[in-house]
Amino acid sequence: MTAYTLYIATMIIVGLVVLVLVIYLLLIIAALRRAGTHLKQLAGGLQKIVDNTGPLPNKLDVINGALLQLHGGLSSVDKHLVGIAKVFKLV
To answer: Does the predicted TM-score (pTM) go above 0.70?
Structure first.
């Protein structure tokens, strides 16, 4: 093998390595652009969630009050059911 043959072989290998690196970098650029688009959509969706749940704190007092009444009623039913279960000796 001559020095010229080694030089040509080296240049071909370097060219192939550079070509592979360029292809991978282009694929990475394309993937990052797609990810950027998805992130924009995600940010828009999260902003809609923030906007839609904004009035929720004002309603929580009403919801908690209704749940407290429901808890009281369900506790009463539970006591009655326990009493019935004792009568039938299920407990």
So the answer is: no
